[in-house]
Amino acid sequence: MAITSRRTRLRLRGSSAQAVVAVGSLVAALLPFATHTALAAPAGSHSAATGRYVVTLADQPLATYGGGVDGISATRPTPHAKLDVTSEAARQYRTHLEEQQNRVARSAGVTARRHYAVATSAFSAELSATQVVRLKATAGVTSVVPDTLHHTADDRVSTDFLGLSGRKGVWSSLGGADKAGRGVVVGDIDTGIWPESRSLDAPALGTKRPPATDPYRPYRSGTATVMHKADGTTFTGTCQTGERFAADDCNQKVISARYFGEAWLRAVPEANRADYVSPRDGQGHGTHTATTAAGNSGVRATAAGRDLGTVSGVAPGARIAVYKALWESKDGLQSGGMTSDIIAAIDQAVADGVDVINYSVGALLEPSLTDPVQAAFRNASAAGIFVSAAAGNNGPLEGSVDNTAPWVTTVAAGTMAPHKGTVVLGDGTRHTGVSTTVNRAVGPKPLVRAEQVRAAGAAAYDASLCAENTLDAAKTAGKIVVCDRGVNARTAKSAEVARAGGVGMVLVNLSASSMDADLHTLPTVHLDDAEASAVRAYAATTGASATLTAGGSDSPYPQVAGFSSRGPSRSNDGNLLKPDITAPGVSILAAVAPPTNGGHAFAYESGTSMATPHVSGLAALYLGEHPTWSPMSVKSAMMTSTTPTRTAAGAASSDLFAQGAGEVQPSAMLQPGLVYDSSEQDWLAYLEGLGIDTGTGTRAVDPADLNYPSMTVKEVFGRRTVTRTVTAVTPGTYTAHVSSLGGIEARVSPSKLRFTEPGQKRTFTVTFDVADATVGSLVTGSLTWKGAHHSVRSPILVTPQSVRAPERVTATGSSGKVSFTATSAVRPFTATAYGPVRGEGVHGSVTSHGGPTDSEQTFTVPVAAGTKAVEFTARPGSAGAQLAMVVWPLVNGLPASEGHVVLPGDDTSVAFPRPRAGDYRVVVVTLGDAEGTTSTPFTLQTNSIGPRSGPAGKVSVTPAAYDGPAGVTLDVSAAWSGVAANDRSSAWIEYPNAAGTLLSLN
Predict the structure, then answer these.
(1) Entry pTM
(2) Can you name the residues that pair with 583 across neighbouring β-strands?
(3) Is the confidence at residue 838, as pLDDT, over 60?
(4) How confident is the model at residue 523 (pLDDT cuts 50, 70, 90)?
């Protein structure tokens, strides 16, 4: 969260320009903090911030346009229908949107390179920082974000584990595997498809319309593929030809295939491309996700002569539409997909008429809810498309979850029964891990750490990873080698051991992560970090030996994988539980592209990328049975029928930020009893409740009241009531049961709900009263409605808070006092002042009278960990100059968010409480020099409040402590002295549980 001195749209929530008390949104106990650092010299080029951006407008796209433009009727589909992009109204409205986009672009001196109108109203363009500021200040613009690179998010048979197969499985109840998902199209936005895979075998597309006995059979109509669907609408796609991809590569399974790479192909030199300019998969990830979701059933999988059993897609009866928007580079650094290409893919998927979108893709940081991709998914969901997205692979880091919008189903990765292998050490100890390559005992053989057998000239670190050509064949021959995980591919490590004459490998995790059932070159056991330390230590001893054996000790499952990203969601400001649900995502066997997978047609992969298509496939099963259900009803049915995952000790897990509602249960989800539904208007009201200006005029609601299948209440000051509405699937009387909430009392009213027919709705409230709960600590539990032979369980997260106080207070003078109020929910209340600090100013100059990039100057500012807050301030040397500022956090040197824009005004500043450590890009911009001048000199000042910042005066706060009753509103005073009157000084007032107020002086 950033605190700005002037309110701008979307992410930017600000304060008034008055000198006494400037109150933005109120902070609570778990508000994020900030850090300290010196200001770096300006970047050498004025154009450092220039790049490609995506500009999103407030206009409704075709998917949600309800009318209002003279002469153009609504294009929004009616309930239970899909969007028709071929209608005359759609053609007219698309033209209208593109004209609007061009007008906005021209107003900032910009040329729109690419237009989007189906799932979002947006355009992409090359922008300077000055143009970013101008567009941010333009009426009707809701976001301006960098066109960033997105990356794929990487029982022993998942369909067996989920209870889909077998005589009593879900497929059987749906009429058999071939009918599971029939009449449904799954759109896969990924790296493309390998059409020769056996998991995609199907009859060729014909030109005859399907008979009544087979109504959902796809067929060709000219260059288009047409399929009449279970919901009564029609899918219309095409098989786009290109490099090693012909029209005949589509069939009755892969019914459409397109590619989107205009931005990526322009950004990546041809010499660094390792992909096909066509829908063909150059990596294997897309083939894996598509066939996991909807590949054929009962396909025999083999690799290097090994029989791996059979594999099946979750919805074998569904059809696949491919939207390749992610690409492979030779160096791997530019592998991924650009925002603008991904939006184009979403736009086309909505226009084609898919029922489900699978998105096993992630960003560098959790995107904002107004990010163009998330906004496009909002409109796709509003058009009736179920969107399943990966939670990310940055676990177990807190707050690392990705794809967190409420209209998206965010999927965590869980384990299944592992393929076990054991390392038996010479001292008799046994360490069980994962293996698919130890079919008979190997050993006993000498056991060594890789660095002990490194080749001459090889670095010890490189050898420890078993990097290519780092092992000495004379030293390695006949031995089992311990290789550390990291940097190079896991299978490349075993290939190096085999090259050097080793007979086996023990792959060890150095930190919490997955154990993967890779198809290694030689017998390999993969151990987690808990087992690894003992094996590494033993291998370093003289005379160490080991035997690799198949099988081993049991471990509880399903557990949430260590790599699976965790909540809480920063973009939702703690108001929504993410991830939503857990599905199998560890050692998932599915089809891949052989050229990039060691020649194998099938491979085991792990990641939330692999979990996501399980949920996409389950949504296809659902829509095959209930084709007119809304995406949020399907999500609710999945979430409220889950069971808890397990801890390492085998107990039921209560870690909701890891598992969401729990592990998906297909057999229960088809009969949910009750569902929590929501629509576009609900999501817009939720966004407005978060302080996000959607540009639609929608009235805000309390975010806790979004009609979601989970309940998250981030601030309870004594008492809080939330509201939900449920819709009956199965009539009957349902009674509320609330689990223990650890010091919080919960009352449901009414506690009984009676339904006499399906479709009836009932509204209830849940009131939370803080009893003796620990303030600032998350309390979890659940609400379960039981009745009509159903249990409908919703997870609950409640955080009792400590203090409600202003985010920022401003005042002037070298000494003085300012007063404001704070309400404490804890006893005792404390207030501690840090600072004030005054950073050294850096001088620069910009001009609106020069070339296109002379109006901006760029600085890189490192921000260290541990600082309370950092405030950036830019001040013009000429009165009347229109000075603005843009600040981006950087990841790997690139902007990782849409940036925080401060428009010209009395105070050009932005502050970050507890910021992310790392570099920040600060761009100072002039939108107009002062009258009578041809340039604008300025001073940029960075004030960082942290353990290494020296005081620049004195500050105190009264009361420093208060031990009276909780819930009392206190008058708080902050006094300061010895502060420079002509420069910005900043102080931090900290309350219990790290809540705080920034004091901004002069």
Answers:
(1) 0.82
(2) 413
(3) yes
(4) very high
